[in-house]
Amino acid sequence: MINGQIAPPRPCIFTPQMWTVFELVGEGVFLCDTSGRLCEVNTFACQMLGYPRSELLKLTLWDLLTPQARPLSLAELKVGQPVFMEQHLRGKDGRLLSVEISAQRIDDDHLIAFVRDISERKQAEAALRQSEEHFAKTFQASPVAMSISRQEDGQLIDINDGFLDLFGYDREDVIGRTALELGLYPQPDERVELIRQLREQGALYNYEQTIVVKSGEPRETLISAEVIEMNGEDHLLAIFVDITPRKQIEATLREIVDNMAVAQRISHFGSWEVKFTTDLQPVEPHLWSDECYRIFGLEPGAVEMTTELFVSLIHPDDRQVMQQRVSQAIEEYVFHPYEHRIILPDGTVRTVWEQASVVLDETGSRPIKLVGTVHDITERKQAEAALQANKKRLRLAIEAAELGIYEQAVSLDGNTYYSERWAAILGYDLEELPAPTDRYEWVIKQVHPDDLATLAAAYREFVVGRASTFSTEIRMKHKSGEWIWIKNYGKVAERNEFGQITRILGVIQDITEAKQLETQLRQAQRMESVGRLAGGVAHDFNNLLTIIQGYAELMEDRLNLDGLLRQSLTQIQQAAHSAAGLTRQLLAFSRQQMLAPAVLDLNHLVGNLQKMLTRLIGEDIMLEIDLTEAVHPVLADPGQLEQVLLNLAVNARDAMPTGGRLIIEMANVELDQVYLSRDLEAPLGPAVMLAVTDTGCGMDQSTQAKIFDPFFTTKALGQGTGLGLATVYGIVKQSGGDIHVYSEPGQGT
Q1: What integer best gives the mean pLDDT of the chain?
Q2: pLDDT tens-digit series, residues 508-525
Q3: Domain boundaries, the chain
Q4: How are strands ordered across the β-sheet holding 338-343?
Q5: How far is Cα 161 from Cα 146, in angstroms, rounded to an integer?
Q6: Cis amide linkage into residue 285, ω under 30° from 0
Q7: N or C: which end of the chain has fewer CB within 10 A?
Q8: Hey, what's the torsion of the CAs at 219, 224, 228, 230, to 10 degrees?
Q9: Half-sphere exposure of residue 359, counting CA atoms within 13 Å on the CB side?
Q10: Pairwise CA distance, residues 652 & 650, whole Å
Q11: Do domains 16-117 and 598-734 have the same CATH topology?
């Protein structure tokens, strides 16, 4: 029904079966009379225009067409000609649909029209036209070189101005010719290869290719190409990007990088870079130069350098310092250089120096990376350590030799250098010496007047070149006012362009003690001569005494002498006995007396000497003897032990000129391993200790170290031979004993 009325029946032009077919057609089917009134439509037509069938059948075909299409369409249809046209139909909602209409009269009163919606196709065609227009404009306006050529024969059919600028041709030189004819490719096979890859891949992007421009100059380009369809034929759209400047820069950069790599390898400098995320975490992996890898004992590029791997290569004792440096750099934007140790994969420990710069973001508020260098300083550290060791050895050697070092300019107003030891030899601190420019004159004033000529002669011979070194022994005044002997040795430290000496380097040494020892040696040699003479006389004298004593004994036995003669004979015997004691003393002095060891009771021996010792030390000194009842017996020469006690008593007496106490005591002792650790020659086991103590002036450590040396004495010249304590030491040692001394200045011995 239409508007409450029953819809008119379908015309009987077509059978129901035919209309069923029309319903299945995917196009709109319109049946109308010659006036254009619609007699029937299919469902697709209703859906396409948005009308119900009943409404659509109230309209004419011309109501649906645009006014411009009506006269032409009607005129053509009236003469019975088929009509094919593209027109616009207006839907119920007013929108225009692009349609393709195929209409035909089927009898005198009716015509049929098939209408296809081509709106999407028209939109696509419009878009294509717009795209083609845009492409044409872009093609011509692009500064990049572009060309279009037929794929079949390579003939160029279009180029843009960028192409002409790059290749240097005019348009008429290019259009209709091929790239090979123009000689754009150095080798024809190169274009063949490009086309082959294009066919395989469908498109090429950034294909590096050397091309030759009109001038014959080669240019480096990136070619991107794609097959496009034009007029039903395949064409090749090619884009050429000139990268010659970039390639030149890359070559320069490669040369710089190569040179830098060589420089890094020669200097053992490696470079590195660590980037940070927004939360300041290191980006993995780090960027390391080849030399950086080599410094850490790794093959360049063999592994990716991560934070974990880097930390594992740091010496465990230095990892905390490294982490502190990085944290400090992130917080303060400053990286403080430092040195640390690394452990190579083979276990070798080396030392490196790290320094870096902090790179901030554009706002300057956040570090984005650390860029730094690492330098292998192992050899330098080893050299420094060796130098320090050499300096230490030299210093110890100089200290052991007690040498004072000086450096002197030849000119009198030149600067000088004197070591602390140099000043100490003369009893001064460095601060007490005059200014450097005044020291030379001051030093000359310290030289003994009698030695100035000797010093001047040696110095003159050296400066004028007749001697390469100089060495003198002179006396100089000590701060205490005493004159000390100095050994002065110097050599050339610097010459000017004329070969003249400008600076001297030298050392001095205090040889006062050596000079004193020389004097003592000469005196000892004289005493040795006297000793040999005394020994010879003692032997001869002993022979005479033997005869005298023998005849005195015969006379006493065989002659009946009266009182006066017997008294005279007794005096002869006593004198001979005293002379024999004198002979023994002479032999002891000359060390030619044989020991006669016997088992002794030291209590008895010391008791027998008490009166003699009392007379020997004088009235101002009190003798105290502390005897032990159960003292062990000892095996020794009694005469020699008496000599030991007498010598010690004499030394004690001389140490107490104003009086004091002399104490002799004995005790049984056990010599254990602790004692032997101080004296390897001492016997192990039970022994008897005999101590002689005085309350005299005492001795310092340096004197104690020399008191048993032959010819050493603290007494004035002529008051001692220096053999007393040496004899004591020899007797004790020869008797299988041991001797020690303990003393402090002012505390006795």
Answers
A1: 81
A2: 888 888 887 776 566 446
A3: 16-117, 124-242, 248-382, 404-510, 526-589, 598-734
A4: 287-288, 269-275, 367-376, 349-360, 338-343
A5: 8
A6: yes
A7: N
A8: -30
A9: 10
A10: 5
A11: no
**CATH tag for 598-734 (out of 1.10.10.60, 3.30.300.130, 3.40.50.2300, 3.30.565.10):** 3.30.565.10
Angle at 694 between CA 693 and CA 695, to 5 degrees: 135
Helices (H) and strands (E) in the chain, counts: 25, 25
Do 76 and 55 meet the contact criterion of CB atoms below 8 Å apart? Answer: no
Indicate the CATH number for domain 16-117. 3.30.450.20
* Mean pLDDT of the region 481-488: 91
* Alpha helices, H only, 560-637: 563-589, 602-617
Mean pLDDT for 642-648 is 87
Secondary structure, 3-state, 201-253: HCEEEEEEEEEECCCCCEEEEEEEEEEEEECCEEEEEEEEEECHHHHHHHHHH
Beta bridge pairs of residue 31: 40, 112
DSSP state, 7?
P
pLDDT digits (tens, 9 = 90+) for 123-180: 766 766 666 666 666 677 677 888 888 888 888 888 888 888 888 999 888 898 888 8
Q: What is the C-alpha separation between 577 and 638, in angstroms, rounded? A: 18
- For 462-528, the three-class secondary structure string (H helix, E strand, C coil) is HHCCCCCEEEEEEEEECCCCCEEEEEEEEEEEEECCCCCEEEEEEEEEECHHHHHHHHHHHHHHHHH
Can you give the pTM of this predicted structure? 0.39
Which residues are CB-contacts of 358 (< 8 A; sequence separation ≥ 6)? 329, 330, 333, 334, 335, 367, 370
Exposed, middle or buried: residue 602 (CB in 10 Å: 0-12, 13-18, 19+)? Answer: buried
pLDDT of residue 448: 93
Q: Which candidate, 586, 582, 562, places its Cα nearest to that of 574?
A: 582
Q: Which residues pair with 557 in a beta bridge?
A: none
CATH class of domain segment(s) 124-242? alpha beta
**Which two tokens mark 352?**
């490196």
605-628: b (≥16 Cβ within 10 Å) or e: bbeebeeebeebbeeebebeeeee
Locate 242 and state its tokens.
């000139």
3-state DSSP percent of the chain in helix, strand and coil, to 5? 45, 25, 30
Closest to 589 (Cα-Cα) out of 546, 548, 533, 628: 533
Which two structure tokens, joined as six digits, stand for 527? Answer: 């005493």
Using DSSP bridges, classify how beta strands 83-90 and 156-159 pair: parallel, antiparallel or unpaired: unpaired
Q: Which of 158, 126, 133, 155 is nearest to 145 (CA)?
A: 158
Lowest-pLDDT range of 2-6, 144-148, 206-210, 463-467: 2-6
Q: For residues 54 and 47, give the distance between their C-alpha atoms in angstroms, rounded to a whole number.
A: 13
3-state secondary structure (DSSP) of residue 339: strand
Fold of the 248-382 domain: Beta-Lactamase (3.30.450)
The class level of CATH for 404-510 reads: alpha beta
Question: Are 329 and 358 within 8 A, CB to CB?
Answer: yes
| Other beta carbons less than 10 A from residue 474's beta carbon | 20
The C-alpha atoms of residue 439 and residue 686 are separated, in whole angstroms, by 63
